[in-house]
Amino acid sequence: MEIASYSSHSPLRLCDKRPRNLCASSLLRLCSSKGLCTVSSPSKQAILRYSYNSAQNSLLHFPRKHVGVSWQFFSRNKKFSCPYYDDKFHNRNKMPRHVVVRSELAESGTTGAAYPLTELQWGSKVRGIFFYAVSAIAATFLFVLMLVAHPFVLLLDRYQRRFHHLIAKIWAKVTVTPFFIIELEGLENLPLPDTPAVYISNHQSFLDIYTLLTLGRGFKFISKTGIFLIPIIGWAMLMMGVIPLKRMDRRSQLESVKRCMDLIKKGASVFFFPEGTRSKDGKLGNFKKGAFSIAAKARVPVIPMTLIGTGKIMPAGMEGILNMGSVKVIIHKPIEGSDPEVMCNEARNKIALALNHQG
């Protein structure tokens, strides 16, 4: 670490508020007792001297030509040395503000870090604002229809709630249509709407939910409990029958699995993101076996789907922007079986192959 001074006329100063009758030799004894010593180049040793004519509150003077002096702590029990910082010594000898401490990190920033946003970045931010504005306005009006129909849905269609999912499909289409196009491939692989199944897909972006809702299938998502607190959106999710989950809560996980099993027995479908979270780099993560265990126990097919492009339009962790692009959904052939591990590997291989094929 390098210590430099702004001033070209004044030497580096270590200020001490103790009485002036303290000599340099006593300070050297103090440093040696604490394990402190000064280190400089062999050719230019630092000179410690005491002067009554120095600047106010100044005790030690290191000439300007001897900058680069560093404090080191040497332990007799170790063969190496590491930097040592003495809080008590620092409090007694506070350095003036014109001293700058600079390390190797001083020049580690990128050259473009301080540059203003480009027109393309500003365009993405503006599109993001309009995207959420359209989504909020559409959700407000459609939520009223959902709220009025909710008592009848509970009475006539308590488990599948087709009307609520129709409203959700309209909301998703109204929101995404002005901003990007969704291409569907493999629609013939979808089971009939009333056939219970376990749907899975990779998870790249916040837009994945919008994209999946446009399919118009009445599968029940599993979502974090905090999402249900969002006005209108969270309330609509509750009425749709979305399954709440508290992360890192074993009891909540068991309850969500039990509820999934009950819904499947009643003829409804469920949806899982086997990765558990959104991918930060676009690469496919490891799959958890929970969804496949449910499918194997309930003896229903697994419908793997690959989402392509959502992570580029709205990357994970950058939900405030909306880039230009298109989205593709590939619906693979159903997977059936009784071994969750085999089903998990087969589903992941299909999704990974589709992602690699699309580049």
From TrEMBL:
GO terms for cellular component: membrane. It catalyses: a 1-acyl-sn-glycero-3-phosphate + an acyl-CoA = a 1,2-diacyl-sn-glycero-3-phosphate + CoA. It is an enzyme of class 2 (transferase). One of its GO terms (molecular function) is 1-acylglycerol-3-phosphate O-acyltransferase activity. The chain crosses the membrane at residues 129-153, 221-243. Residues 197-310 form the Phospholipid/glycerol acyltransferase domain. Keywords: Acyltransferase, Lipid biosynthesis, Lipid metabolism, Membrane, Phospholipid biosynthesis, Phospholipid metabolism, Transferase, Transmembrane, Transmembrane helix. Its EC number is 2.3.1.51. SUPFAM superfamilies: Glycerol-3-phosphate (1)-acyltransferase. CDD domains: LPLAT_AGPAT-like. One of its GO terms (biological process) is phosphatidic acid biosynthetic process. Belongs to the 1-acyl-sn-glycerol-3-phosphate acyltransferase family. The HXXXXD motif is essential for acyltransferase activity and may constitute the binding site for the phosphate moiety of the glycerol-3-phosphate. This is 1-acyl-sn-glycerol-3-phosphate acyltransferase. It comes from Cephalotus follicularis. The lineage of its organism: Eukaryota, Viridiplantae, Streptophyta, Embryophyta, Tracheophyta.
